[in-house]
Amino acid sequence: MRLLDTPLCELLGVRFPLVQAPMANNAPPALAAAVSSAGALGSVAGGTLSPDVLRAAIREVRDTTDRPFAVNLFAPPYLRDGALEVVLEERPRVFSFTFGVVNAAALREAGIVVLGTATTVEEARALEQAGVDAVVAQGAEAGGHRGSFLDGFPLVPLRELVPACVDAVSLPVVAAGGIMDGAGIVEMLSLGTAGASLGTAFLFTREAGRPREHLEALRSLETVVTDAYTGRPMRAARTPALEELMAGPAPLPFPEQRAIAAEKGPLFMGGTGATRGRELGAADLVRLLAAEVEAAGGP
User: Fold this and answer.
1) Most Cβ neighbours (<10 Å): which of 59, 73, 207, 254?
2) CA angle (204 as vertex; 31, 222 as ends), nearest 5
């Protein structure tokens, strides 16, 4: 397990430097609890939740496991009123955010570890200046919404983004995007990351509870990055409904577009590695990933 013994483990209070990506509307509290109980970092996907529902989700995870977990929110201007106050009151071990910058001072003063999402080197530097404890480098391969907040929505491949961010900031860097197995984790560790964040891999677990049509769409269709469904670029399966939306007209701003798009059909977010998704329990997946890293890392 030497490869998995990185500074991220001590920072997050986990056995393995693996993070379950916070997938809004796709990751119930039970998933976060199972991942954390297995020794990785589970994440409560709170970006779309009301303060009351967010608090209930945090407490559900806390009632299920005594291990550290993260709570994820959207950054301003997408941050829901009262949500950050809930985080400060509930004080999870870790807070993560995406779509912008959250001032980390009050969170760190409360003893909360703070992670921010970057899709470019410039964003990684901005997060470091904002006082985060670690940077999640989101490559072009990642499923779901892009975390971009400076100069458009660039699609930098993870193999380029990770070493550039490692060189640019003095903080631990967590790789995210298209990682589905131990070999992918080992590759990212070899590029200097302190850990890996996996989202699509956990979509296929029982605890995620995704409908069969979601999993089959990700297995059978290519994925594409588009703002046609929600008004903000995200990677999802290229279904006929999404094709129709991509043909026009131009989408409304995020998140208003989603109400209109939902009339066309459901959205199936996922990353480029979805065809390699494995259906098993979340804890089993964590243990399998750790074993694969050990095997791939050699003696």
Assistant:
1) 73
2) 135
Q: For residue 229, give both structure tokens.
A: 């469904």
Return the HEC string of 92-159. Answer: CCEEEEECCCCCCHHHHHCCCEEEEEECCHHHHHHHHHCCCCEEEEECCCCCEECCCCCCCCCCCCHH
Tell me: the pLDDT tens digits for 235-265? Answer: 999 999 999 999 989 999 999 999 999 999 9
Determine whether 60 is exposed, middle or buried from the number of CB atoms within 10 Å of its CB (0-12, 13-18, 19+).
Answer: middle
Name the DSSP class of 76: T
Asked if 179 and 224 sit in the same domain, the reply is no
DSSP assignment, residue 250?
P
Q: Considering the entire predicted model, what is its pTM? A: 0.96
Q: Which amino acid is present at 178?
A: G
**Domain CATH number, residue 144:** 3.20.20.70
Enumerate residues 6+ apart whose C-beta is below 8 A from 273: 141, 178, 179, 180, 184, 200, 201
* Contact yes or no for 228/261 (Cβ under 8 A): yes
Do β-strands 234-237 and 223-226 pair in parallel, antiparallel, or remain unpaired?
A: antiparallel
Residues 62 and 26 in one domain: yes
Co-location of 162 and 62 in the same domain: yes
8-state DSSP, 176: E
pLDDT in tens, 18-53: 999 999 999 999 999 999 999 999 999 999 999 999
- Tens of pLDDT along 190-207? 999 999 999 999 999 999
Two tokens at 2?
Answer: 């030497």
If one counts the domains in the chain, the total is 2
